[in-house]
Design goal:
The protein has 114 residues and is mostly beta strands. It has strands spanning 3-7, 10-12, 18-25, 34-39, 46-51, 58-60, 68-73, 78-83, 92-98, 103-104, 108-112. Strand 5 and strand 6 form a beta hairpin.
């Protein structure tokens, strides 16, 4: 049974940093592309970042490029999203996803506010 469990969200001040984690289980983690999406109130879900199975191919949305970093630890079956220089418009529920099979975690709220 595929499970994805996000953690690490919370309240962050503008300009601050936060790291999200997603613990995966129930499948052979290194074999799959993993993604981070986000959904702000009243908006559609948006792709934030994507990382290949071995971690060598990474893409970012233009809105987070040069501020966010996606990474993975295939020994720990975990994918991370390091968020730096956060802005109020980064406020959203962040979801970890495995595109193959359309599996998603429950999401973790990130609120950027002073």
């Amino acid at each position: 049974q595929v499970q994805l469990v996000e953690s690490g969200g919370g309240l962050v001040q503008p300009g601050g940093s936060v790291r999200l984690s997603c613990a995966a289980s129930g499948f052979t983690f290194p074999n799959y592309v993993m993604t981070w999406y986000r959904q702000a109130p009243g908006k559609e879900r948006e792709l934030v970042a994507r990382i290949s199975g071995a971690g060598f191919t990474i893409t970012y949305s233009d809105s987070v490029k040069d501020r966010f970093t996606i990474s993975r630890d295939n020994t720990m079956n975990t994918v991370y999203l390091q968020m730096n220089s956060v802005k109020p418009e980064d406020t959203a529920v962040y979801y970890c996803g495995r595109p193959v099979g359309s599996y998603w975690g429950q999401g973790t709220q990130v609120t950027v506010s002073s």
